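Lab notebook, bench 4. Still working through the backlog of constructs that have no structural model yet. Next entry is a single chain of 108 residues. Request: give me the structure tokens for it.
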Amino acid sequence: MGTYDTKIEAQNKAIIYILGKYESLPSDGYHKVVYSFRDNLMGEPSKNALWYNKRDIKLGLEVDVNSGIACSWKEVSKSVLEQASKSKNGMVEIDSLSNRDQPTAQCL
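Model written out:
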């Protein structure tokens, strides 16, 4: 999807991307959106991914691309994505409006 200056900016763009593609997303599995960010001034940009399952209304966060989903949230409807897309920190908004599967500190 691209490289951004911060993780929050990259996650916000990924949420907006998922929302923009919402009607055409497959209903039988996850849709993966990979993004990079430069939060760390040394070395290569970090790569993360958001996974969205439209049928199960579930969002997953992969903090190390190709390692699998590390954190996930249930009940992430289109309405939740719309609210998150208007927030300065979309993932915090999603965390407050849905049900997470693990402690927040690991995910945000």
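Notes after review: The mean pLDDT is 89. The beta strands are 3-4, 31-37, 46-53, 58-62, 71-74, 99-100. Flag for follow-up if needed.
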